[in-house]
Amino acid sequence: MSTRIASQAGQAGMGRRPLAAALLVVLGLPGFAFAQTAKEAELEARVAQLEQMVQQLVAEQNRQQAVPPASVAAPGPAAPATAASPAIQSTPIMPGANPGTRFSYGGFIKLDSSITRTNDGDLADGSVGRLFYVPKTIPVGGGMANESGTDTDMGANFSRFWFGADTELDSGDKLKAYLEFDLFGGGSTAFIGNEVSTNTYAPTLRHAYVSWNNWLAGQTWSNFQDVAALPDAVDFLGPTEGTVFVRQAQVRYTSGPWSFSMENPQTVYTPYQGNMAQVSGDDGAVPDITARYTAKGDWGHFGIAGLARQLKYQNGPLGISESGTGLGASVSGKFNIGANDDFRYMVTAGSGIGRYVGLALNNDAVLDAEGGLENIDLVAGFGLATRVRPAAARQPVLFDGRVRQPGRVHGAGHHPLRFVRPRQPDLYGPAQAGSGRRADLGQA
C-alpha cells in the first residue's frame, strides 16, 4: 500500500513540470510585454489564472510531502473458508405437519435377570411367567416333587421406545399423537424365535392414541386404573395381585379432576367345572363405562373410580345367550410424608371385574350347568412405603398385593422387597426379591 501511494505522488510531480514550462514559454514570447490590445489583455489574464493554479498545486504538493503517509498494514493471507457442515436433514421430518409441531422420542434399554423357584409344578419354557411375575401362572395342584425347580432367565425384551408429536392449531386447539412399543412379543416365543440362538422377540404395541383438547381416542391405560399410585418396581408391575392393570382401546373425555371413558368390552369366564380355566369371550355389545375423580395437591393425590360393564356369553350350537352386569370401585392415591417419603395404596372391590385386576388373575364369571353366568366377587389391594435417601438411593421397600374371592376358590399374595441405587445419571442397577403364592382352595 505504501509503495502505491508513493507512486501516485510521483505521478502528480510529473504532471506539474510541463505546465510550468508552458508558462515560461508564454511569458518569454517577444512582443507580449508591449502588446496591450484587448485580446492580449485577455490572454494575460488567463496566464495569471494558470499561474495561480500552478501555485496552488505546488503548495498542495509541499503539504503532502511534509506529512508522512499513514502506515497501512499489508494484507495478511486470507483465512481459509470454513466448509459448511452439511445439513442433517435437508427436508422437514414431516413435510405435511402443521408449522410449529414438536416431535419427541425416547425409551430405554433394560436387561432383566430373574431366578424363579416353584414348589408345586414347573413353569413352561417360554411362558409369560418366566419373563416376569404373573400370579395366575404359578403352578398349583397336581404337581410332583420332581417337577419343582429353579429357573434362571435373562432377556432385554422389555426395552422400550416411544415417539410423540404435539401441536397447537391455528384455532388454538391442542393436538397430540403418541406411540409406544416394547419387545414383549405377547409373552411367547412359539412363533417368533427361541432361546437357542437368536432370542428373537417381536414388537408389542403398548400405547397408540391421539388427543384433541379434552378428548382422547386410541389405546392407553384404562381410566379405571391409577398409574400414578404404582410403585417404581424392578419387576414388570410390582404389587401385581393388588392393582388394577389394563391397557385397551377407548374414547375418553377429561374435564378438570373428572374423566369418563367408553372402553373395549371383553368377558373372561370359567367353563362349567372348568377348574379355574380361563376362556375369553368377545360377545359383548356394550362398551365398558368408567368414571374417575382425582384430587391433587402438594400433599400427593387421591382418586376414586367406578366401573360398569356388560358380561356376555353366547353358544350358538347350544342356543345359549346369557348376559350379566359387572360393577366395581377403586380407591387409590399417594400421600407424601416429608420431602423424601411417601405412602401409596390401592383398594379395589367389585363383582364381575376380574380381568381388570392382577393381570386377569381372576375371571369375571363362571358358567353354571345351564350355561348361565354367575359373577365372581373380588377384593384386592396393596400398600407400600418408599424412602428416598439424599443420594437418590431407595431404601428397601416392602409392599403387599393381595386378592381374595369371597366364597370362591382362588387367592394370591405377593411380598417383594426392592432396592434401587443409580450407578450413574440415567443408569440404574436395581435388585428385588420377593415371594408369591397362589391357592386354589377348591382343590385342597
TrEMBL record:
Record-linked InterPro entries:
DcaP
Which residue intervals are annotated with compositional bias (Basic residues) in the record?
Answer: 406-421
A Pfam family found in this protein is DcaP
What domain of life?
Answer: Bacteria
Instruction: List where this protein forms a coiled coil.
Output: 40-67
Q: Which UniProt keywords apply?
A: Coiled coil
Keyword Transmembrane helix on this protein? no
Task: Please note every region of biased composition (Low complexity).
Answer: 68-87
The annotated region (Disordered) lies at 68-95, 406-444
Q: What is this protein called?
A: Porin
